[in-house]
Design brief:
Layout (H helix, E strand, L loop, with lengths): L35 H15 L6 H8 L3 H7 L3 H13 L12 H18 L14 H16 L6 H21 L6 H14 L5 H6 L8 H22 L5
Helix pairs in contact: 1-4, 4-6, 5-6, 5-7, 6-7, 7-10
Length: 243
């Protein structure tokens, strides 16, 4: 169903990402006194406080002190709200300036900023499989692709490099965000005991598994990112036709 021509205030079902493919409602004399920006601001606050499972259009309208009809003037579905909220938090990811430090420094700063945002908004990592077509996301994706191109990374390695970096930061953010709060040592102790009891079956994990070896989230992330960048750089300088 084509919802791009729906009249403001008409509630129709839509798909993830669709909000970016239709024009926003035009404000006029009879428009409700509520802005899309205000809706998104309150949606992010609700998501930060309670997570995506607790977000409903009714609860969002209640937090805004308005009715659902007013809310539907600006956003048609919960998917619209999630897409807008995801793009809004990406505005917090700084786009590195060209300071002459090289492509690795730029990519490292971008990916580090992205990780910080995922950790500030722990609901977000699990939703990043959605179509990401908002202006904030696209501006940062453009920087990543342009920086890799300038470094000499070309297809098919360009897409592989960008996906590898994106998947790494999303996976890392999701793992850290869902780690049991306050129960880290209890979980590790149980994991150590389980792997010790099954050492013959899992000898490598019993000695070196991530739930057994104590570590620092930041240091582990930085080391893994460095390894990814080493691989990308090797493909440019020593690969067969990569750059």
């Amino acid at each position: 169903m084509d919802t791009s021509k729906a009249e403001p205030g008409t509630h129709r079902s839509g798909a993830a990402g669709e909000v970016w493919l239709r024009p926003p409602a035009r404000r006029g004399r009879d428009s409700p006194p509520l802005s899309r920006d205000r809706i998104v601001e309150e949606a992010v606050a609700l998501l930060d406080a309670e997570g995506a499972d607790r977000l409903t259009m009714r609860r969002l309208a209640e937090r805004l002190g308005t009715g659902s009809t007013t809310l539907y003037w600006h956003v048609k579905t919960k998917d619209d709200v999630l897409d807008l909220a995801l793009d809004a938090i990406f505005a917090e990811v700084g786009i590195p300036s060209g300071d002459g430090r090289g492509w690795r420094a730029g990519v490292t700063a971008l990916i580090g900023g992205w990780r910080a945002v995922l950790l500030r908004h722990p609901w977000s990592a699990a939703l990043l499989s959605r179509p990401m077509l908002g202006p904030n996301v696209l501006a940062r994706s453009e920087f990543l692709y342009a920086t890799l191109l300038e470094a000499g990374v070309v297809e098919p390695r360009l897409t592989a490099a960008a996906y590898g970096l994106s998947n790494y930061v999303i996976g890392s953010g999701l793992m850290q965000a869902t780690w049991p709060a306050g129960g880290q040592e209890d979980v590790r102790a149980a994991a150590r005991e389980h792997l010790r009891a099954n050492r013959e079956r899992y000898p490598a994990l019993a000695s070196h598994g991530p739930l057994v070896v104590e570590g620092d989230w930041d240091a582990a992330f930085a080391l893994g990112l460095s390894w990814l960048l080493d691989g990308i750089q090797a493909g440019v300088t020593g690969g067969d036709g990569a750059g």
